[in-house]
Amino acid sequence: MRVFFGWCRQRVWVALLLGLWAAVFAVVLFLYGSPVEAVGYALLLCLAALVLWASVDLLFYIRRTRTLQAMAGQAELTLSSLPDPAGPLEAAYQALVLELEEKRRQAVSDADGKQREAMDYYTLWAHQIKTPIAAMGLLLQGDETDRGRELASELFRVEQYTDLVLSYLRLGSDATDYVIRSCSLMKILRQAARRYAGLFIRSRVSLDLRETDLTVLTDEKWLHLVVEQVLSNAVKYAPGGRVTVYTRGQNLVIADDGVGISREDLPRVFDKSFTGGNGRLEGRSTGIGLYLCREICRRLGHTITIDSEPGRGTRVTIGLARPYLEVE
């Protein structure tokens, strides 16, 4: 019905003009003394011709409209298959659309090229910066002074942020590969706890890592990154407190008794670049960590949720069930 009314709006002037011509024709015949039946017959013929023209024109209009509507959702694939123009005006419009589409594709191609160059540069930089980080770590080994421990702590943060950047770049790359296999969850947890042991000690946070024999179907490297990021946040926002890591069914739970998350911030903690009230107070939050955790879990088929209350700590639950995957 909408197509019919659209056709009526476009053809109303043509119909009025044809009606005016028919009226003029009838008046002329009448003035020359033609019988009323002849005038009526002439008007009837004009009306029949108008109805025939309107029917054919409406049929073609509906076909062309439906063709364009079908192409709307796949314009990039079918833009060159536009229906033949009905006149010079439509031909000019089609030429304009095709020219704009070509310019758009060129702009997209240029933007993709610049993005690839930037990604390659940042990836190379992130890999190269790990060499001086490792060298500084070796130089600080054995320095048990307060200054040495403080430098080691800050160096660990630099290394952590560098790994976060690398993970972010890899996650956005089409070349990201996943190796899905059965992994010991306890092995992943111990590796993460061992790496962050110094951070736990310096922050005076106790870790209660409870034993589990759960085996999960996942990518060990990427799940390890998720666990590390959640542990890092737990230590950051629970200084002098306690972090508890345990399993509940097919879920991994990492809970702390830190400052918690405000109710208004909780729905947005997984948004990219969102730091929230705690992040602004702490001053070092990037707003990328939890976003990466959510994206990694989504791609691995896992889930991640957060429950928290201000002043009563935070509980992160990672759902590890993968019933629809098979190990090859």
Describe it.
The chain has helices at 2-31, 36-72, 75-78, 88-140, 146-171, 185-195, 197-202, 220-236, 276-282, 289-300; strands at 181-184, 206-209, 215-218, 242-248, 251-256, 303-309, 313-319. With 328 residues, the protein is α+β, with helices and mostly antiparallel strands. The strands form two sheets. A five-stranded mixed beta sheet has the order 2-4-5-7-6. It has a two-stranded antiparallel sheet with strand order 1-3. The longest helix is centred in the middle third of the chain and has 53 residues, at 88-140. The protein is elongated and about 120 Å long.
Structure class: alpha+beta
Q: Tell me about the biggest sheet?
A: 5 strands, mixed
Order of helices and strands: HHHHHEHHEEHEEHHEE
The residue-averaged pLDDT reads 80
- Rg from Cα: 35 Å
Tell me, briefly, the overall form.
elongated
What is the rounded distance between the termini? 55 Å
User: Helical residue percent?
Assistant: 55-70%
Task: Give the strand content.
Answer: 5-15%
Strand arrangement, major sheet:
2-4-5-7-6
Low-confidence region ranges:
none
